[in-house]
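Quick question, first post here. What does this chain look like in 3D?
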Amino acid sequence: MTTPHPTARLDSTALFHISFYKFVPLIDPDGVVPALRTLAADLLGSVLVAHEGINGVLAGPADALDIFERGLTGLAEAKGAFVGIVFKRSACRTAPFARLKIHRKNEIVALGVADVESCGRGGIDVAPAAWRALLADDNVVVIDNRNSFEFRLGRFRNAIDPKVENFRDFSAYMEAHAPAWKAEGKRVAMYCTGGIRCEKTSAWMADAGLEIYQLEGGILNYLQSMPDAARDWEGECFVFDNRIALDSALQETDTTAEDVYSHPEDAWRLARARRLDDAK
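> Answer (accepted):
Ran it through. Tokens below.
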């Protein structure tokens, strides 16, 4: 359901960012795309649509985002598929996006492994308040399901960085360590930025016989839901837009792309970020 944002209405000229996704079978994704382009015409950002659902990030004034959220949940072309979708919202100091892109894709999040579909088959969702208890449990292994440069910038306390470059490496890491975790009686929990990557990853893990706990709504939902999130979150959360990074209160920081991509292995990421910046 659409979450009310009372503070977002204080300044109609301010910009806000929303992120949302839902794994749900879409009967006609090709018909959804043009309807979304009309609905989001006053916003900037990116939305992906596939047979497996929708994944989007958009920015604009609060009122325009409110209209979009209401319109998406009732979008006729989706035939009720987007009812109950959750939106995560944060204020912007920097405009996150320079254009609007809405595309039909084969997947709403690409993992590099064929025939993985989520649609409710994933891990065990853990609400933010319960996630704190998992972090404090010595019998829980907490895995960061993001890139290493994101982990270095900020992470949950006691989390492990698998240090992998693509999903095939991640799946190999999990398969290699799962037997030992099981033998030690450990439970496995993982998290990512907005929850979507974990949801699809855990679907693959379910197929592989692994039971996984996943942070519902990801880091962004945790920071939005927990007023004292800084107790558990260390550093900043990288976001894939012009804001670069957010603190534990979802406020944009002064971190730059050069700060984030500081390791030699991330030089290509910095070069890409600079190209995108020059193309604005």
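The domain at 6-104 is CATH 3.30.70.100 (Alpha-Beta Plaits).
The first strand starts at residue 15 and ends at 23.
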